[in-house]
Amino acid sequence: MNKKLPGGPAAVIEIGSSAVRMRVSQLKHGEIEMLDSLEYPVFFGHEVFTTGRISFESLRQLSSILTKFTTALEGYNCKNVRVVSSTVMREAENRSFVIDQLKIHNNLHLEILEYSEEKALICSEIIRLLKEESKIEMKDALIAYVGTGSIGVALYDGKAICTSQNIPIGSLKLHDALGALSRECDDFYPAVEEYLDIILNRVDIPKKDIRSIILTGSDLELVASVCGAEKSGDLYTISAKKMHAAYKEIRMMSHSAIARRYNISEELAEILYTALSIYTGMLRLSDGVQKVICPDIDICDAITRHMLVPGAQKEYIAQTNESAIVSAKRIAAKYNCHGAHSDAISEFACTLFDKFKNLHGLSSDKKIILQLTSILHSCGQYINVRMPNQCSFDLIKDLDIFGLTHEQILLTAFVAGSDEFTMPNVADAGAIPMTEERRLEILKLVAIFRLANALDKSKRRKLRISKIRITNEKLEIKAVASGSALLEKWAFEECAGLFKEVFGLSPELQIKSELLK
């Protein structure tokens, strides 16, 4: 949630695959104004994508660049600084060492964004920008960010992101992956197209669901210039026909020929080839799209907004949570999960969470874990009715749910995968770091979820909570029933033990029939 934002300018430093960038901005009359922008070219991406590590030489270069940046910031009296990185540092095996050395030598904390965080931040900025341009059709829009090392793909239904996926390939990584093949033959474009189709065809979005395509990425300006894009404000519009024509022209050309044709360096020519092949590959995900909208934004835009604009962070969290719930419901439908039952226990769980928030001590961001657990907890029954809890855990822990970090996914998986009545074994929490604080947090979530689940044990939405009262020793829940609720009463009593063990309160359920009202 937004705390009071620090005054003065803000700086975002992004450590990318091919450049280290810094942007200094301030808020003036409610609008973000850029004060300065610096960029140094680097080759970290080539190094990480081929060796898996950042070398000592590259680390020294990075430290030197950051020293220059922080010196420049002194002229702006800028104290509000964030340093971020995405794919290049995510995939560096020695990233912990890099973080430590930058803290020691530059006194800067490097945040490595997860795929989901990076994608959610960029998507939120794209949606914000396009909503300002009301003439643009946003319903059923495929949104994709083509980075140097990954592609984030999402489907926006006009209100929320309803599905999303991360594809571990980007313009630079594709170039490095197929570099040997390009040296063996001049016309290797069929192999590139086939390779991309194999990857992009895994995107779980039917063509009929896509009415428009919105693309952006680190190489957008280069692609836009080659395709003869029209620009209005921060938006490029590229004709699909022109994009296909540009790719058809360069796909048979050598990198040196591309460089001469467009008056760019051979290094940029190599990236242009793979970037344009990905952009045209994205067009093949849809039928009949005539133009592509390309917002000229990046991760720095989104982070700067959160640092400077009051309420931006709160709005982002609300938007991301809504999209996560919509995405989870779409996944649950594939596993024949009971939608009405999920809605009922989600409502019960959120009511319990809010009613005694002063006692459970969980942060507000844990409510989304209960909501997602309510939606996904029964998906394991689709796989194996003998071991539904284990199957639910195994399925959920590897899901790609929009905006959620890996830790949030694992928390959801563990709460959903807990056995219904026995004391959970928190040691089975997978890759979550098991501090005592984390163990207690999981137990609290499981205890709340079990009570909520018990209140709709029959999956027929018989109960409606009318009152919740907390005393020193009891949690009293009064509910009105539309029919016999003996099953719910029994399940509630079976789940009460863990709740009392965790919170020190004895849950009591008092049920009154609607007929006696």
From TrEMBL:
<feature type="domain" description="Ppx/GppA phosphatase C-terminal">
    <location>
        <begin position="327"/>
        <end position="477"/>
    </location>
</feature>
<dbReference type="GO" id="GO:0016462">
    <property type="term" value="F:pyrophosphatase activity"/>
</dbReference>
<dbReference type="InterPro" id="IPR003695">
    <property type="entry name" value="Ppx_GppA_N"/>
</dbReference>
<dbReference type="Pfam" id="PF02541">
    <property type="entry name" value="Ppx-GppA"/>
</dbReference>
<comment type="similarity">
    <text>Belongs to the GppA/Ppx family.</text>
</comment>
<feature type="domain" description="Ppx/GppA phosphatase N-terminal">
    <location>
        <begin position="25"/>
        <end position="284"/>
    </location>
</feature>
<dbReference type="InterPro" id="IPR050273">
    <property type="entry name" value="GppA/Ppx_hydrolase"/>
</dbReference>
<protein>
    <submittedName>
        <fullName>Phosphatase</fullName>
    </submittedName>
</protein>
<dbReference type="InterPro" id="IPR048950">
    <property type="entry name" value="Ppx_GppA_C"/>
</dbReference>
<dbReference type="Pfam" id="PF21447">
    <property type="entry name" value="Ppx-GppA_III"/>
</dbReference>
<dbReference type="InterPro" id="IPR043129">
    <property type="entry name" value="ATPase_NBD"/>
</dbReference>
